[in-house]
Amino acid sequence: MEYYLNASMEDFLEGDKKVRHRCKPRKAAKILLSKSNLKHSKFFTGFDSYCVYDTKKRVYFEYKKGDFILIVTQILDIAEYSSITEYDYVKKVVDNLGTFKGHAMLGVPRINPDILVFNNCIFDLESKTAKDFDPKYLVFSHVPFDYTENTEMPCFDEFLDNFCEGHEDRIKFVRCFLYTVLYGLGSMQLFFHFFGLGGSGKSTLANVAQCLVGKESCITTSLKRLSGDQFEIVNLVNKKFILIAENENWSDDTSILKNITGGDTLPGRKKHLQGSFEVNISGVLAIFNNSKFNTRDESGAIQRRIKQFRADNQVKVQKDLLRYGTRKGWEGLLVKEIPAILNWVVGLERTEVEGFLNNIVTSM
Q: Which one of 179, 194, 206, 319 has the fewest beta carbons within 10 angstroms of its own beta carbon?
């Protein structure tokens, strides 16, 4: 993020002509909220969350207070007035920032789940239309492509045909799975399990789901970690896609599965903050591995909620369809088809998705 400040040293001075000194922290905070990157910021101080709007990517970046103090220091430094970049002063400025009406927020930050931010516009999942950028939407995730109304996706069609072995009902299962991830339908009280031989396309499907909603809306974790770490539970806040991508001892972890998929709030903790937070989980959980799901759950809750897909059709010629690298981001043949895949998925209606998935007893 590039920082800007449309103010000079003179703006931060007060007093008479003979004796001038730096202004009080509250005045500095007011200047920052009107003349810098912090214009659209939202501060959830009770959750140690400071959200700053990036005017280039058109999404918010979330910082902890310690990191946010450093950012404010860098912005103030643009005024070339060393007195206002002293740590104690900046800390007071930050404390004041979190008190201004329109910027001070209560509770936990909640994203606008129906908004996807592309390079050239935002896409509203509710109206299924492209719109102009608007900082009123609290969104952390960026889909790094241009949105188009294109519907051609030959590479993805070929992938679906191989992955689903040509069965239309299995293709619809995949489509409904991607729909639940896009819309964050954890409220449906179900979870997905894709299992089978390596090289069958499971990782590609998981990558497509992550690419559609943006990496920042996804988390890769484990049931073992979720069941024993309240700090990890907090990381599920605002995640649309909860990816479990490893083999585990299912009999030890089914309780956390029931809690996450049952609509329960879970206690979570943040480091350096006292007490716990009630975490409402809206994301869809999906397990991708090679093994069939086994559980000792006697309540029947797991069997009622699980939607399984067995993928055993190994592709002989492996194509570089979609992968993510920390330096270059998303690469592969499916990158240019992401808008078309999005248009294909949102062509469904929620009632159709719910009806299809609820009629599946366990597996496809």
A: 319
